[in-house]
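Customer escalation, tier 2.

The customer says the design service returned an amino acid string that "doesn't look like it belongs to this structure." They asked us to rerun it and document both sides in this ticket. The original structure tokens are below, unchanged.
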């Protein structure tokens, strides 16, 4: 199945401008073209866009994403360096999750204190 750029944008959650930008900076390979010369995105293209979106959501810098994408285009011989990139990024994500969990603990502590304060004020009223 193929999708016009508007449908690919809708399905991927990215804007049309972002799809064009990703193509321009070589994060995605130029999609096939239909008989009228319009971009025709495949299911594989959409799966790749979904993966890129996850990388962005987890904070991977665009430059590192470009490096990873370039390695992918080189094929299976680059599996080891691609794995290393993902392992390093996973470590960064795990460290950030630990930081966020510590922040969540502080927020929960403060919220609990406000709950106790509210209950104490209700009891003394």
């Amino acid at each position: 199945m193929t999708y016009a750029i508007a449908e690919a944008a809708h399905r991927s959650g990215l804007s049309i401008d972002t799809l064009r930008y990703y193509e321009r900076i070589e994060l995605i390979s130029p999609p096939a073209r239909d008989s009228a010369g319009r971009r025709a995105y495949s299911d594989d293209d959409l799966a790749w866009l979904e993966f890129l979106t996850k990388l962005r959501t987890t904070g991977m810098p665009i430059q590192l994403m470009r490096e990873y994408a370039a390695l992918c285009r080189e094929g299976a011989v680059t599996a080891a360096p691609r794995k290393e990139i993902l392992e390093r990024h996973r470590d960064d994500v795990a460290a950030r999750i630990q930081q966020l969990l510590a922040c969540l603990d502080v927020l929960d502590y403060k919220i609990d204190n406000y709950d106790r304060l509210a209950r104490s004020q209700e009891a003394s009223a």
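Tier 2 assessment: The sequence is consistent with the input. The chain has a mean pLDDT of 96. DSSP finds five helices and three strands in the chain. Sent an explanation to the customer and offered a walkthrough call.
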